[in-house]
Amino acid sequence: MPYDLFFSYRRHDLDRARLLLDALTSCGMRVFRDETAIDEGASITQEIREGIASSKLLLAFYSSTYPSSGPCQEEIISAWLAAQHAGKLPQDRVCIINPEPGFDHIPAPLRDLKAYALPHDPAGLTSASLMGPRER
Fold first, then answer.
1. Which residue would you say has higher pLDDT here, 118 or 15?
2. Going from the N-terminus, what domains does the chain have, and what CATH number goes with each?
């Protein structure tokens, strides 16, 4: 099944991300999100690889602890490499949502992608804004 978004997040951030997820699905977007925990040090599963491959965009909920998750890093790298393999720019396949007050925890190459601060009203973040101008 093709998806509009693959939602990459740390499991403990799910409560903070829930409003955003609800807003995205309520505007009709098909969102893949893994419902199972992946142990640190474990590789991402085949199901997750297929979810990334069948999604138009990986949306990373890039909290301050996101970079310390091996599986999250694998997901974002997989989407980045998929874009390159398809002859596209990484920003065509990877988008960053920052739930933190600053952007210092996001590596510079990722800050150059589509990067958005988590809006106070996530319903305002639509598929059109994900494809539009970057905000940092």
1. 15
2. 3-131 (3.40.50.10140)
